[in-house]
Specification:
The protein has 191 residues and is mainly beta. It has one helix and 25 strands. The radius of gyration is 14 Å and the shape is globular.
């Protein structure tokens, strides 16, 4: 709880500005990272990969670069977890990119926001027919049922980008009071 990181971090997989791999039932509260984070896959401004757990009141102001999944807050996960009252102000680059999460599975995102410049890289062969997956909040919803409630993103940075870039078959993501807003609205919407 209440950890801070200012770092430049590089590696292969599960690379985060504060935590590389958060295990089952992890709880990360009130933490922040101002980092440059680079890796091959599962790269996040705060956490690289998170299994089940909660992230509450956390912030990432990071530059995230990956050849695979990348998220402003978390590269991959949490699985069956919750993101509550978190926000990012990031630059994120990868093949699967989200302002908050690169890849989500059975996740609930509540009262969170992303102000992110997102760059989707072309997927290398043999999957070259599939373009990059870019979402204002989540790049790719991999499995299960999830919700995104009372959350927003900076529509000036992400004009024409939806909350979720793409999702797998049979995934159900419910959006409630979630949309792109102006910087002014963003500043006043989550006080």
């Amino acid at each position: 709880s209440n950890c801070r990181s200012r770092a430049s971090v590089a590696g292969e997989r599960m690379i985060g500005g504060l935590i590389g791999h958060a295990l089952n039932r992890s709880s990360v509260t009130g933490c922040s990272a101002r980092s440059m984070v680079t890796g091959a896959d599962m790269v996040g401004g705060l956490i690289g990969q998170m299994l089940s757990g909660t992230v509450i009141g956390c912030h990432a102001s990071s530059r995230v670069t990956s050849q695979g999944s990348a998220g402003g807050l978390i590269g991959c996960g949490p699985y069956r977890g919750t993101i509550l009252s978190c926000h990012t102000k990031t630059s994120v680059k990868g093949t699967v990119v989200g302002g908050l999460l690169g890849i989500a599975q059975q996740t609930d995102i509540i009262h969170s926001q992303a102000s992110a410049a997102l760059i989707g890289l072309q997927v290398p062969s043999p999957s070259a027919d599939r373009g990059p997956r870019v979402g204002a909040l989540v790049g790719y919803w991999q499995s299960g049922i999830g919700t995104i409630s009372s959350s927003c993103w900076d529509k000036a940075l992400l004009d024409g980008t939806g909350a979720v870039g793409a999702s797998a078959t049979r995934v159900q993501v419910k959006l409630r009071n979630t949309q792109g807003v102006t910087k002014h609205q963003m500043k006043h919407s989550h006080r």
